[in-house]
Design brief:
There is one protein chain. With about 950 residues, this protein is α+β, with helices and mostly antiparallel strands. It folds into three domains: about 375 residues, no CATH class; about 270 residues, no CATH class; about 180 residues, no CATH class. It is about 50% helix and about 15% strand. The chain has 30 helices and 21 strands. Strands 1, 2, 3, 4, 5, 6, 7, 8, 9 and 10 form a ten-stranded mixed beta sheet that branches. Strands 13, 14, 15, 16, 17, 18, 19, 20 and 21 form a nine-stranded mixed beta sheet that branches. A hairpin with a 2-residue loop joins strand 14 and strand 15. Helix 3 packs parallel to helix 12 and helix 19 runs antiparallel to helix 25. It is elongated and about 120 Å long. The C terminus is likely disordered.
Amino acid sequence: MSARHHSHLTSAGLLRRQFLAAPVASILLALLVLAGALLATAVPRAIAAMHTAALGERLAEYPARELDVLNSTRAQPGLGPSAGGTTLPDGVDEVWGAHEEHLFDIRARMPGPLAAVTGDPLTVLFSGPSDARPEGAAAGGISYQLFTGFDPRLREHVTLTSGEWPEVLVGSAPPPPEVDDGFAAPPVPTPTDEPIEIVFADPVAEEMGWELGEVRTLAVGAEPQGVRLVGTFDAVDPSDGFWTHVPVALEPSVAFSAAGDLRITGLGFADPNSWAAYVQTQPQSTMDSWFPTLTDRVRADESAELRAAVDEFTSRAYQLGTGFGDFAFSPVGEVTFSSGLSDALESAAITAGATDAVLATIASGPIGVMVAVLLLGARVVFERRRSGLELAAARGASDGRLRGILGLEGVVIGVPAAVVGGALGTLIVPVDAGWGAWIIAAVFALTPAALLVASVPALSPLRRARADVQVRGGARHRWVAEAAVAVVAITAVALLLRRGLATSAAEVGVDPLLAAVPLLLSLLVCLVVLRLYPLPLAALVRRNSRRSDLVPFLGSARALRDPSAGIVPVLTVVVGVSVAVFSAVLLGTVQTGVERAADARVGADAAVTGTPFTLEQQAAFAEVTGVEATAPVYSTAPSTIEIDGRVRTTTLIVVDADEMRRVQAGRVNATPLPDELVGGSGVDGDPASPVPVVISQAVADSIEGADSVELDGEEFDVLAVVDGRTAYSPRASWVLMDRSHAARFVDSFVPRTVLVRFAPDADADAVTDSLVEIAGPNATVVTPAMVLDGLRGVSTTSGLVLALVAAIVLSSLLTALAIVLTLVVGRPARDRLLPLLATLGLRRRGERALVAWEIGPVVVVALVAGALLGAALPYVVVQGVDLRSFTGEDAQPSVVFDPALIAAVLAGAAVVTAAAVLLASRIGGDGNASRALRAEEEG
């Protein structure tokens, strides 16, 4: 019996008894820790997954040829078998084996991060284009141009649909003299009188009008070469990046020359070993040897190492062949590789840095609220334990023992909850994000113990003081602390505004200055609220003192003399409301920016893009019911600007200014087309006169300060400068001119894009369907609504929207919880006061009103201050973070207020706050007068 009694006095026994005496507070604190650990582990993983998805989307914008690790050369492959064998088909190794073996040797020297995301090497060689006119065809009319391709792995990429595979044609000749350099000279092939056999993709054969078995003669080199079509094929995978290395292989090119002649270009594959004979005709050829980039293996968190590996690999030269050059056949020698992967990764890293900066700015507020709520939760637990621990202290328990009891309870509360929360976070988002998140979860696990242990000095009843008659000796220290907070907050804002947009986020990570500014400003506003709200409240007390009703006077007086809302709950309300309003404003800004970007990219009610459109198609577009006007973009050809002898590439855009003005009339983001573009200087009859043009800001920056500037050798006169892209071309560097001046710059006016304006009462869906039918299966019709859906679906944009919505919801819930906990902390004082008032006739409704008065005035003021701060924060944050990666615009978006969204957020905050006060007022309050009289008075 004594042993059992003694067990109740041990630390474990006391801990169990005090937990069972008031478990709700400890459970609530455990749930807060669980939520914090869950967010600490899940959010970084979600961000990592978002970055990887965004990187995949960014890489998908590039053709595979730009991302592959590529060497493109005019030299030919070194012919000969491999030394150790390859996986090439039987017979092909005899000609291509040595070349592929060299590529595998080069791959073995590739840095690990790059080798992990690239596949086995591939090679394709194509020659031409060469004129392949049918026998007996008259001069003029349709021109047929043929590329001839040689792929040593052809049968892995295509499936035969008709006819047969091409056969190999190989001549022979004595080898040239050997060169004593350690390499054996390759055999020199000789041409053959037999036609080379090729296969076409079905659409190419149909457009070229080339029948199976038909022979055409190519005018190449000194000896014409016959070519026979023996079969047709389909691609095994038309989306394979291989096809970006081979021009016009699956679909022919159909274009018109300036003279109006139709030119059809296609590529046919010969047997890969036929190159040994074909080379002697000395056609112009290009050989691509590359290591395919496997974009599905590229991860955002490894992009920095991968960029370094790409730069290292592409900075070196490698031996790809013998490099003999003293005879007609000149094989490849030492080469270097290039890849656009590094630029793509850098661009994605910049976007990821901007995303992290915005998310850190958004998260700083809820993090502050979470910390404040944890403080309140720990205080609630402490207040529930105070009486028992004070009794233990009065009976001689040391501070160390009391700290041990509280610390042990804090560990029991925090550690299991953090483990469960962290495990849930990893299960919800199964993405590897490193161990950093677990460090934060560990901090959450130990926070309850630290906060409870820190409360031990306040356990002695002799140290209690009435909150409404506290000694003012600490006023000087309070002023110093508040002044320090003000200086730090104002300095941070000034530095942020002075610095401008953060451009190094991709290199240095989250900007701590930008992330801290919202929380610092919230803390400053909180201190201002605490300093100023007693002034109107004192006036309200004086006014209520003249009323006969007790509740308003007593409630306002208690709120003034003994406020439950100290800095922690006020900070919670200010931060919560400001974050909610700030998130709502930022959400409206991003959504409006996305809508503007979608409209600017299309440039009209619809844009038809695809293969070159014939005059008949252009006329049919204009005749569709519901179409008010059309405007073709006649050319978007590569061009060069010579700047003081230096050459810079750009895109020359040719439009009919009058047509385009009719289509884009009234559009806010339309590219300006001055009247001087048409006629005036630069008329074709006066070649010495400068050509009037509109240029992009990128071109304007490049020619600024130059003494001599020419466009394809011609002078030009700049009428306007546009910052960003146009609907006519996705390129940032461009020069635009009217069609009336373009004949000396381009030789073809065949549009691949036609902008369409709908009539006011048109059925947009019906018009779009008609345009699709006319444009054909190889063209697309897009509208601003379609582009808007695509932009909203981008991982960074959708992730930001989700984060903003989550910030609004989380901040509102934490604010409500903070108010509830604040009133729970003040419950002991109410338990002493309310029963006494009840004996004097105070009804239950009046008791709830007193509870509302306890925190209501400061909460109302904090709500107003938080709303004003939330409306001001976007103007500060937008100065330091680049939102263009979210909106898709070329310029930083301006702040946009969505009245409906902001009103909904404020109404939600008010409802949540009122509900929290109502809930807290219903907690407890069941005490009676006798118990209140027996309770210990403060002081």
